[in-house]
């Protein structure tokens, strides 16, 4: 039975699991500014858990295309008090950061998973995960800077290139003592519509590497381009459709904003396919 180890917890991955998104930012593309206040953030976290989130993903720096970096102390100020509160809700908590200094404090507080959009390019992130015995999400982005990533959305074979990067980063992390890795193709991170569609259609190439695969297409531009829905918060149905397809291809973690809609869809999907 496939399992994701989250410190002392084992998350059964025999069926797809939902990672609820909690952005503690003023400028995220979909919900920027809604949960900057720690009390509102905690209430949102409680709502995501009540809707059926299997784990939560907290981030305090937007990594949307063109996003400016957040100063270290500001990211800590946004993240750490909310993380400490959310850890009491009884579900595992992932921290989405690319700064080793932030990751170190989050792991000391008890975060269960490190989600690094830069793909563990920084050896300090690898060392932290190994030291704390914490699994890491390794995501593909062509360059480790959201401000420049779309300028590098050029591939001869996007699936082969993303697969090779994820395989190399995963192997390096495991050799360095990281206990487990999760692979994320990085939909929308330095990728155009055709790249995202190719990765989704051939997701089994990533799944075949033998590590749990996370897919995050929730409310993204790709969904808007396919559906014609301009407002990100209204892209729920398209997001659910894409994630169900990813589940059929073998994804076992779905990073979503709209947990209730995905939970209901997965209940039907599991009855038919699970």
From TrEMBL:
Swiss-Prot/TrEMBL cofactor(s): Mg(2+)
Pterin-binding domain segment(s): 16-267
GO molecular function terms noted in the UniProt entry: dihydropteroate synthase activity; metal ion binding
Any one GO cellular component localisation term in the record: cytosol
The keyword Metal-binding is assigned to this record: yes
Pathway: Cofactor biosynthesis; tetrahydrofolate biosynthesis; 7,8-dihydrofolate from 2-amino-4-hydroxy-6-hydroxymethyl-7,8-dihydropteridine diphosphate and 4-aminobenzoate: step 1/2
GO biological process, one term: tetrahydrofolate biosynthetic process
Superkingdom per UniProt: Bacteria
PROSITE patterns noted in UniProt: DHPS_1 (PS00792), DHPS_2 (PS00793), PTERIN_BINDING (PS50972)
EC number: 2.5.1.15
Keyword tags: Folate biosynthesis, Magnesium, Metal-binding, Transferase
Xref: SUPFAM superfamilies: Dihydropteroate synthetase-like (SSF51717)
Reaction(s) the record says it catalyses: (7,8-dihydropterin-6-yl)methyl diphosphate + 4-aminobenzoate = 7,8-dihydropteroate + diphosphate
Enzyme type, top EC level: transferase
Functional note: Catalyzes the condensation of para-aminobenzoate (pABA) with 6-hydroxymethyl-7,8-dihydropterin diphosphate (DHPt-PP) to form 7,8-dihydropteroate (H2Pte), the immediate precursor of folate derivatives.
Family membership noted in the UniProt record: Belongs to the DHPS family.
Name of the molecule in the record: Dihydropteroate synthase
Organism: Thermus thermamylovorans
């Amino acid at each position: 039975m496939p399992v994701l180890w989250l410190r002392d917890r084992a998350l059964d991955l025999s069926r797809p699991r939902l990672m609820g998104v909690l952005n503690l930012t003023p400028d995220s593309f979909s919900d920027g500014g809604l949960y900057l206040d720690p009390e509102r953030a905690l209430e949102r976290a409680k709502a995501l858990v009540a809707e059926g989130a299997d784990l939560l993903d907290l981030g305090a720096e937007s990594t949307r295309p063109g996003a400016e970096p957040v100063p270290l102390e500001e990211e800590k100020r946004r993240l750490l008090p909310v993380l400490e509160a959310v850890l009491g809700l009884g579900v595992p908590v992932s921290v989405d950061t690319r700064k080793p200094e932030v990751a170190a404090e989050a792991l000391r507080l008890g975060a269960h998973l490190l989600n690094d959009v830069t793909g563990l390019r920084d050896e300090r992130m690898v060392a932290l995960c190994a030291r704390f015995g914490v699994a890491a999400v390794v995501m593909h982005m062509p360059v480790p800077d959201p401000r420049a990533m779309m300028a590098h959305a050029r591939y001869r074979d996007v699936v082969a290139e993303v697969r090779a990067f994820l395989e190399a980063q995963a192997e390096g992390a495991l050799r360095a003592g990281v206990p487990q890795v999760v692979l994320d193709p990085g939909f929308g991170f330095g990728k155009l519509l055709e790249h995202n569609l190719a990765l989704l259609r051939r997701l089994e190439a990533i799944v075949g590497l033998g590590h749990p695969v996370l897919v995050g297409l929730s409310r993204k531009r790709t969904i808007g381009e396919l559906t014609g829905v301009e407002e990100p918060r209204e892209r729920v149905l398209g997001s659910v459709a894409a994630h169900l397809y990813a589940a059929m291809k073998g994804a076992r973690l779905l990073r979503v904003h709209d947990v209730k809609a995905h939970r209901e869809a997965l209940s039907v999907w599991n009855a038919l396919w699970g």
